[in-house]
């Protein structure tokens, strides 16, 4: 899926999908690997946005892929395979135990107080860390991710799918098992809540706000919000999310809303590590062998 747009996952050729699915349900390793290859990157990036921690997202991705593969025999073709897979993704990220990052961030009010209380000063030139601009970008991405964690999980998945990854209301309603109107309403509410907070706090959106990523980076490092030696968001990526999602299928409501969207879609689109290990672990697992009678 290196050049594939994410939106095309939900518009795949049905004949090709059916052939791959049939072979996978018969336990053919090549077909199983193809399904994993087609979907693992998107699953990982959804998990990363929901859990905000690399290791937790990696673990969740592997658990989700295992659920997908071991439950392929139950798929009856009443929806597209991709839709069925992302129902599994949504159910998993909504119900999995809290990640390390989720346990730290609570509400917008508390998060705003933390931002206000963080002192502002420059990073020393002689620090044995990555370049300043890398750390400042890590601080920006960490802070914006922290804002997402102020949302409930249901709010977050609606925002991540609908606003960041540009899933249509049709697909969103199918994946979340709600009406199309319900999906649009939930997305509108969460947009308003998050963007109101950013408008009141974030200097990237409102130049009248004093908060600046470059001035908060050193404080984020000091309190452990950013680890210069273990970057969560700036390391190991080639594309931005915007490169992968294509064009927003809905007209722009307001130009100012587009500014918020650009900031989130400018986040890295990361590749999950150890793809071959994930596949090998799945195929060698007892659950897999039991499912396909190996």
List the helices and strands and how they pair.
Layout lengths: L13 H12 L3 H23 L2 H17 L10 H15 L12 H10 L14 H18 L3 H12 L4 H8 L3 H22 L11 H10 L14 E4 H5 L9 H11 L2 E3 L4 H10 L1 H6 L3
Antiparallel strand pairs: 1-2
Helix pairs in contact: 1-2, 2-3, 2-4, 3-4, 4-8, 6-10, 7-9, 8-9
Structure, explained:
With 294 residues, the chain is an all-alpha fold. The chain has one domain (6-291). It is built from 14 helices and two strands. The chain has helices at residues 14-25, 29-51, 54-70, 81-95, 108-117, 132-149, 153-164, 169-176, 180-201, 213-222, 241-245, 255-265, 275-284, 286-291; strands at 237-240, 268-270. α1 crosses α2 (29-51). It is globular, with a radius of gyration of 20 Å.
Q: Give the overall form.
A: globular
Q: Poorly predicted ranges (pLDDT <50, ≥5 residues)? A: none
Average residue pLDDT = 85
Could you give the count of β-strands? 2
Series of H and E elements:
HHHHHHHHHHEHHEHH
Instruction: Please give the radius of gyration in angstroms.
Output: 20 Å
Structure at a glance:
The chain has 294 residues and is mostly helical.
Question: Characteristics of this structure?
Answer:
mainly alpha; 294 residues; globular; 14 helices; single chain; two-stranded antiparallel ribbon; 2% strand
């Amino acid at each position: 899926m290196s050049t594939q747009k994410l939106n095309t996952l939900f518009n795949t050729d049905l004949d090709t999908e059916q052939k791959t699915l049939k072979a996978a349900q018969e336990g053919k390793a090549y077909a199983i690997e193809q399904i994993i290859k087609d979907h693992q990157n998107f699953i990982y990036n959804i998990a990363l946005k929901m859990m905000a921690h690399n290791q937790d997202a990696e673990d969740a991705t592997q658990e989700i892929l295992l659920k997908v593969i071991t439950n392929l025999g139950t798929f009856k073709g009443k929806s597209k395979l991709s839709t069925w897979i992302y129902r599994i993704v949504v159910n998993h990220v909504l119900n999995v135990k809290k990640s390390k990052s989720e346990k730290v961030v609570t509400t917008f009010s508390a998060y705003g107080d933390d931002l206000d209380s963080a002192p502002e000063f420059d990073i020393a030139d002689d620090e044995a860390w990555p370049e300043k601009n890398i750390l400042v970008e890590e601080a920006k991405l960490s802070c914006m991710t922290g804002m997402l964690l102020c949302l409930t999980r249901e709010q977050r998945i609606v925002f991540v799918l609908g606003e960041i990854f540009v899933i249509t209301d049709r697909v969103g309603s199918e994946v979340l098992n709600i009406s199309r109107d319900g999906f649009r309403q939930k997305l509108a509410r969460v947009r308003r809540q998050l963007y109101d907070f950013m408008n009141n706090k974030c200097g990237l959106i409102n130049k009248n706000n004093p908060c600046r990523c470059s001035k908060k980076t050193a404080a984020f490092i000091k309190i452990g919000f950013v680890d210069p030696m273990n970057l969560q968001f700036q390391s190991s990526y080639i594309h931005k999310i915007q490169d992968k999602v294509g064009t927003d299928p809905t007209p722009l409501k307001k130009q100012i809303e587009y500014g918020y969207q650009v900031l989130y879609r400018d986040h890295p689109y990361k590749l999950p590590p150890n793809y071959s290990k994930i596949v090998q672990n799945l195929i060698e697992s007892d659950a897999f062998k039991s499912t396909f009678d190996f």
